[in-house]
User: Fold these one by one.
Assistant:
Number 1:
Amino acid sequence: MLSAAADLGYLGPNPLGRQLRSGRSGIVGVVVGDALRRSFRDPVSIQVLDGLVGTLGEMSLGVLLIPGPSDPAEAPVDPLVLSAAMDVAVLLWGSGTQDPVLDALRRRGVPTVVVEGVPEPDVATVGIDDRRGMADVVRHLQDLGHERFACVTLAFDRQRGEGFVEPARWDEVVWQVTRRRLDGVRDAGVTPESVYETPASLVEHGKAAGFAILSREDRPTAVVCQSDLLASGVVLAARELGLAVPGDVSVAGFDGLDLPWLAPDVLTSVVQPLAEKGVVVGRAVASLLAGQMPEPTVLPVALRPGTTTGPAPR
């Protein structure tokens, strides 16, 4: 029989027929939340996706990557969110208040996992203890004698602004990752002297922030960044301005990335379990497919002191 099947070029059951029998597409829609050309330059995205896709592959599930808008003027919801076949959706980088993508998935009745969003009864959530992690890195800098801080943040909302943000807007952050990490700084009892918003977690945006913050006469002694790529950009800006890191300014990030090109510096960072987070998201998908709503998961983070933080200059 197998020989005859091989002679006929039979490759196995028709996947469309299998979908009709099961009532499922075998596809998980992964909403990246940003343009793919930016997301794939960020090792954080790649490592989380690696853990997620590997876990889904073990369950014979395919992945449909759905990008976010590349420009704030574009529609916030990709047409694939509205029409593509998917058994479960994953919002990879959280959600904001009244998130239009999550609202669209709810209207379709698609079970959803939200990564680093706000726990809600009708969605599965997987997050990290990033608020505490940011408080820990600020306290580390306080122990080193620092009192004057600046913060470089991820985008506040889908407008993806760039530049210094007035204090009146600090409590108007829509995107939850940015909000929690900024709140973590204040949990340590610090009110930043300046907050600089960036449109995406990329080195060039961190470098622009670094030039803006460190060119001021009243520059801070410590810059706390919401990602390692942003922090590495600040370090590069400091070098070009002739400032010693950490002699003149300390810089800390978040993610725990391995950045050998930043040598000889090793970034002080808050390490998050990137691949493990992807695996846990995959397991949440499996629970939803089984008709079960998993409990919200919050993964721990840990401070990793490096060479980019030191005693405050006198």
Number 2:
Amino acid sequence: MAKRCVPVIFGDRTVLEQSAEQCGLAKPTKYIEGLAEAEGPCVLDLGAITTNDFATGTVNAATGRAGYTYVEDAINAALSGQVAAVTTAPLNKEALRAAGIAHPGHTEIFAALTHTRRACMLQYSSEVRCVFVTTHVPYAEVPRLLTKERILDTLELGAQAMRRIGCIDGNEPKIGVLGLNPHAGEHGLFGNEEETIISPAIELARERGFDVEGPIPPDTAFLPAKRRATDVFVCLYHDQGHIPLKALCFDEAVNTTLGLPIIRTSVDHGTALDIAGKGEANPNSLFEAVKLAQRLLSD
């Protein structure tokens, strides 16, 4: 990674050294107190938490607060131009809530702290790309959160991202919009969201020049032939896109937040507290997230 960029870890020295010891890894060798000192791979020691404040592998308010502090400081550094991009490790949502953080995850934190009106999640991999109209909300709330405007915003952000990253045919992105209900509603037999919200949003997108297919029945959207022909899928709720993407390429996929004034990429997995401190975690998604950040910077 150090050959591709100058990685600066926003964290705490004592915690990282304890983690390295637990996992049998080399400890960081370079610590800094300010970003002006970053001349190579290093740790920005923020002093947000100590090893006495938590037990490894447990949900804890102190770790939630520290994690939020790292993210907040990294966002401010990116906004001020002190870092080129931010790549995040996972946050534990229970720990965030225990710390009194109202935001349910990274996507919402980045949107709020950058004052971004239009933002959405993109899950990116070589096999499939998905953007999400809703993310960290209960399924019971999804139908009332769906609007033509929200679907169109997500579609447009996804199209912009694929133009930067690269489209299948090298021109305009081919976009698939999923239905909400079984069989995409079957013309109103199994729900009317397709007729009243999703299809009108698709028609508006076509009027604006986008190449859109849909509403696509969710159970057939991710078949191999469809994936090969589609640059990005517009998914209406979290698991609609996360399940196929993680089943196909869990260790390769990258999460990024679209619409921000800064570049933010992330791993596509959670904190895995059950294996914390055991040295068993696969870092490949983190490496891929850094690569995507660099790719976005170069476009």
Number 3:
Amino acid sequence: MHELLVAQSHIQQLTTQLLKEQTEAQMIQTEKMVSLGKMVASVAHEIKNPAACISCNFEFLDSYYENLMAVLVAYEAEVTEESTKIKQLKEEEDFDFILEDLPKIIKSIGTASDRLTETLGSLHNFSHLDEAKPTLSDINECIDSTLIILHNRIKYSIEVIKNYGDLPLINCYSGQLSQVFMNIISNAIEALGDKMAEQKKASRAWQPQIKITTEILETADTEFVAIRIADNGPGIPLEIQEQIFDMFFTTKPVGKGTGLGLAISNQIVTKKHGGQLLLSSHPDTGTEFQIILPIFG
């Protein structure tokens, strides 16, 4: 009897210690994300004014170019005979090539300016990790912002298919949901990368895909927003699927994963938003996470 009580005491101590470690790890991770959010917001703020200057002045640059070209065309129509000096200068400066290349350069500057503006908007959305209260947010926009941040990891090899429904604004912590989307999509990218390496070794043609679907789910009592993020990667083994949301559980090598991403994502969805985070995965077929959120949270 005494040994049984001692064993029970040890189990209680271990349980208490484990809960303490889980709480501390979650607090550290949360503090990291809040610090990251503040840093991202600060960097985005510093870049915002120069980016706005480039964006606004680009419109003038494009307009001035069009005006100069109109003057040049009118001038060449009026002055049919060019002097020897003008002809020589045109040849030295490769004038025909400049006329052909300059519009392309201006267009590329405009594209880069738009890209910079989009990225700054995405960083601004992602930086709302320390928001004190929920606000009305566009879920489709939150997902797009996450995809822009992850663009460099996706653009060369992974096809992203977006099937967005016509969603109302929902009351949520948009920065924290962006973290959830970031965790799930990042995991999908890594899983697809692993399968790509296997397919390449086997010399098999295969197109990695991430499919994102948003829609409204209606029940007798209320309406929900459903976000499904699916990949056609290797899938998650059946024997570990029940552990996938456990704190500290990871299938990644030591130093590559903390085992906190999906655990914290699950708490953000269930505890902070009163929703559900569901998993459906089949080996060699792929994995789908479904996030279900009440519209009026």
Number 4:
Amino acid sequence: MNRPNKKNAPKSSTGASKNKKSANTTFRPRSGSPATAKKYAKPISKEPLPDLNKEEIRLNKFLSNAGIASRREADVLIQAGNVTVNGEIVTELGYKIKPTDVVKYDGATIKSEKKQYVLLNKPKDFITTMDDPFGRKTVMSLVRKACKERVYPVGRLDRETTGVLLFTNDGDLAKRLTHPKHQVRKIYHVELERPFLHTDMEKLRTGIHLDDGMIKCDQAEYVKNGRSSEVGVEIHSGKNRIVRRIFEKLGYTVVKLDRVQFACLTKKDLSRGMYRHLTEQEIAFLKMI
């Protein structure tokens, strides 16, 4: 039998195409609207969350899935000897656990949990904490029935501030959304005790010196169809009481403060004190940040 002569076979043209640079460049979008997320979002994986009954996974990922900490923080806990597997302390990074392994953190057994993402329209007079020794109302009482998994607030809103507040047991995502380098946008509706001066509006945009450093709003303008005492500000800083402190520095008293947007999440169609679960599109967008 005669075999084909490879030397005489036509050469593929794919090699040349590989050397050509694409004329199209994909840009990573900034935090914005769900419409932007739909345009740029990667297809949502249909793969299930890691299941200890089916496969081995890294110990730090298991801790993150359980909502204990982000993967990086979990590595610190592991190296510190705070985690045991089958009664033995494990300090090896990259260690994988088996379906039958019993994992404990600080003596408590950890079970793999499904990731949950809950959005609350926070009302006044609730503090953002897991529990309060003084018996004050906490935001946890408002989302207690949202899911069987224990979720945690991402960031915080002070007692008198209302609006968008996200809860999740996804440690990695929570870490990303609160880290300053990701500059997650937050939009607030601010109501003051007196009209806000145009000269002070310019100060919001150029910057104001506070005790902990310089701060400026990414955007600031009067609320459309609102009074001159109502201002909308966009800011990415997550410092404690930052919006209230900015206006106090300018000599104003904040009467009402409402967070209307956090990343791509808004309180649209969500009544005060109510919660809802995020859509797959919203979750995909947050993971792109």
